[in-house]
Every structure is written in C-alpha cells, then in structure tokens.
Write a structure and sequence with these properties.
The protein is an alpha/beta fold. It is built from eleven helices and ten strands. The chain folds into three domains: about 5-90, Arc Repressor Mutant, subunit A; about 95-165 and about 260-290, D-Maltodextrin-Binding Protein, domain 2 (3-Layer(aba) Sandwich); about 165-245, D-Maltodextrin-Binding Protein, domain 2 (3-Layer(aba) Sandwich), CATH 3.40.190. The longest helix is centred in the N-terminal third of the chain and has 25 residues, at about 65-90.
Length: about 300
C-alpha cells in the first residue's frame, strides 16, 4: 500500500476509537455517526488484513497490531495539526540548530531564551551544548558559539563578547585572601587550558606558583566546586553574575586576563539561513545592549 492510497479517514477513525476504546465517543469527536466509524475501521482492517480491535461487551480492546500502530498515528496526526496551525497563522516554523559552549549557554543564553522566542516565534531553536570542542558538519549545526581567539579552520567567526577571566571563590575562602599573592597558598581549580593561571598571575604582577588542585573540562563544574570552597576558580565573572549577586561567589581581586572571547561561528562559504541570520542579529544586539560588547555582523552572517 503506497502513501497515496492510505485511507486517511479510516486511519483517523481508528486513532480516535483507539484513544477512547469506544466507537460512539470516537464518532462524537469526529462529528459522524457511530456506524460510520465502525464502517471505516472494518474497512481499514480489511485493507491491512489484520484485526485491530477485540469487540467486548463493554467496549473495545486493542490487538497487538493496533498497539504497534497507534503511537505512530497519534504522533503523526498531532504533527499534522501543529503544522496546519502554523500555516494557518501565516508561516511555518523553521528549524535552527545551534551548538553552544556550556558556560555561555548557562551563564548568558538560557536566561534570555524567552526573549528570543518572543521576538522570533517561528524559529524552532535546537541547542546542542559542548565543552568548546565542536564539529559543525558532523553535528549538522547551523551556528556555534565558541570560546577562543576567533580563528577556526573552515569557519567564519563574529565576536559576540569579551570574557576576561578572574579568580572566583566562596565567601568563606575569600576571607583568607587579602592580596593576590595569597592565592599561592590556595587550591587553584584549573581548566584544561594550562596557561590560564600563569597568565593571570603575570597580569597581576606576580610570578606564577606551582599549580595544584583538580582539573576540570567544564567551567560550570569548576565554578560549582569553587562555590563549595574546594578552591579558587579562574572563570569569566560575566558568565556567573547571578551567583556573584546572590553572594554565593566572590571575586576577591580586580585583576583579569584576556585569554579568549565568545564568537558566533558558521561554516565559511555557506549562505546563512533566515533563522540563522535572525539568531545572529538577536544575539549580537543583546550582547551589545548588555554593555557594548556585541559586534557588527561580518561577511553577511
């Protein structure tokens, strides 16, 4: 049986009957007679060559074949209904898949997602978080937000915002830190980028001490450890504003170091879709409104 010969009315009658386990209530939902529903279901059974219902004295019971068929039909009718609603509203949803480095996703993007949805209700946004290691082609990403120097082979990058790093720790641990040199005696929580703490100490005018303390592949996990007084994390305060304002974290020293920035990237040589351009404009405008950090889109992103 090809899709063009599928008896849609019969499938709808079967799906409603299966949900209600009653031909009469299915008929009321579909605004037809009980006899019409029963006739459609019998016709579908004849076409498929299977029995879909066991007729009981007090209603219906699904056969194994019906149990296998009903989830697919229910989902399909639901998606058809959603799409028709969108078309009737004047525009269908367009899918946009964006890879986002975890720290940026949690610290900046998630609190603003409702703003994006309100501004672009027809963009079906799908987020894929990563630890700054992303393969856009393999993951079929339209865009990706990454942290670094802005140079990735085969990608076009537009700066979103700076992300200077500073020491962050719990208030309890901060009471032991009166000057930057005191950090030499504290556990220093480290990312997989080994040069970050040495660069910060040099920016503070100090010789880097030997590093000790656990290493993390996620700034989110590293800062969570710092909140619990496990040590001092080196992370962007701009991504942990909520924790800082709530007093769960403290930035004990003003010195910061620039080791990279957040960039919006896309495959070079591939025209950006309308949803991708909408997201890029929104993201850069929101970053600019936050403090003038956003950048103009380059290369027709």
């Amino acid at each position: 049986m090809t899709p063009s010969t599928l008896p849609l009315n019969a499938l709808r009658a079967f799906e409603a009957s299966a949900r209600h386990l009653n031909f009469t209530r299915a008929a009321e939902e579909l605004c037809v007679t009980q006899g019409a529903v029963s006739h459609q279901v019998r016709g579908l059974e004849a076409r498929l060559g299977v029995t879909l219902f066991r007729r009981l004295a007090r209603g219906l019971a699904l056969t194994d074949e019906a149990e296998a068929l009903i989830p697919v039909l229910t989902h399909s009718f639901s998606r058809i209904g959603e799409l028709l609603d969108q078309v009737q509203a004047g525009r269908a949803h367009q899918t946009l898949t964006v890879g986002v480095v975890n720290t940026f996703a949690v610290g900046w993007l998630l609190p603003r997602l409702e703003d994006f949805r309100a501004a672009h209700p027809f963009v079906d946004l799908r987020l894929r978080t990563h630890n700054n290691k992303v393969d856009m082609a393999a993951e079929r990403l339209d865009l990706a937000i990454q942290f670094g120097a802005g140079a990735w082979p085969g990608l076009q990058a537009t700066q979103v915002m700076a992300a200077d790093l500073a020491p962050l720790c719990s208030p309890r641990l901060a009471r032991r830190l009166r000057e930057p040199a005191d950090l030499a005696g504290a556990p220093l929580l480290r990312s997989y980028r080994a040069d970050e703490w040495p660069r910060w100490f040099r920016a503070a005018g100090l010789e880097p001490p030997p590093q000790r303390g656990p290493q993390f592949d996620s700034s989110i996990a590293m800062v969570a450890a710092a909140e619990r007084s496990a040590g001092v994390a080196l992370a962007p305060p701009s991504m942990f504003e909520h924790e800082l304002s709530a007093g769960r974290l403290v930035q004990p020293f003003a010195a910061t170091v620039d080791t990279g920035r957040y960039y919006l990237t896309r495959p070079a040589g591939r025209e950006a879709s309308e949803p991708a351009q909408a997201f890029a404009r929104w993201c850069l405008d929101a970053a600019s409104a936050r403090g003038g950090e956003g950048a103009e889109m380059s290369g027709g992103l």
